[in-house]
Amino acid sequence: MDSNSQNIKDLTEKHPWLKITTKVENYVNPNYYDKLLKEYSFSGKTDLEIFKADLQDFSLKKDLNVLELGCGTGRGTEVILGNLDMHKLTLVDLSKDMIEKTKERFGKYRNVEYVQSDTLNYLKNTNDKFDLAFSLWSYSHSVYQLIERVGLEKGLQEVRKIITKLFNENMKNGSRFFLIHSDWLSDEQKILIKQWGREVPNLYKYGKQGISKLTLDSVFEDLSKKRLINYTITHYQGDPIEYGSLEEALETFINFHLESYFNDTKYIYDVFSDLRDYLLKFQDKDGKVQVRPACFIYRCTKL
Q1: In Å, how far from its chain's centre is CA 231?
Q2: Where would you tag: which of 46, 119, 136, 180 has the fewest CB atoms within 10 A of its CB?
Q3: With a threshold of 0.70, does the pTM exceed it?
Q4: Over the stretch 70-101, which tens digit does the pLDDT of each residue have?
């Protein structure tokens, strides 16, 4: 056994959660996802509270057709079901396990459709028309998965085409689109982008915003110039997220944010060491780790 293999073996024995692995189509196990998920807040308001406030002008409308892209275990779904009168709610997620989890949670609602699909593939093929569409944090996953399948240039062309189609064909006049995109330059994300760059350096460039955000910005600006939409992009600096220990922070960063992707690769020892050294900078005298996130919120109205 070479030295790197021995280092990885020793690391895994010391931190058993490194034995967890996932595949792209499965993502993180839903129950484990809920265990690791931290609350994101911005000046004291959670991401869900911000989203709920944006729905106020929809509260008196009836028979809405709503689309959630990347429903996960139903955080955003719960907000929608509790506040809007809907004819139909379509939940889309690539993970079969996530779809099954949301079915368990919301099976009593007869107006919910569950679709196991990649976000961009769903948007490419749907003929439905929506009053409201939203995605909380997950949109970029689909962009990078598409690019990794078909290449950078072709992938970005396809993304532009699909988002343009969404507003031309699937969003009703006066409809709203709400999306949260992580800030790659935040304290939380920049160390994660560095790790993804080990495997795909042309897509994940340390110290720069992601292609998914830059492409979305460009498409929205084009649609705005054509007077198809009005939109705003607001930057939110997050309140520090607290982890009870360095171990908790490492598990969350590696198995939640990095989706345990590196756990069975040659990179895991270096990934672990890099994250440990970085997170130590945010550890206080009591052993707690506090790392500040940030995001961009897109709010768009179809004219």
Answers
A1: 20
A2: 46
A3: yes
A4: 999 999 999 999 899 999 999 999 999 999 99
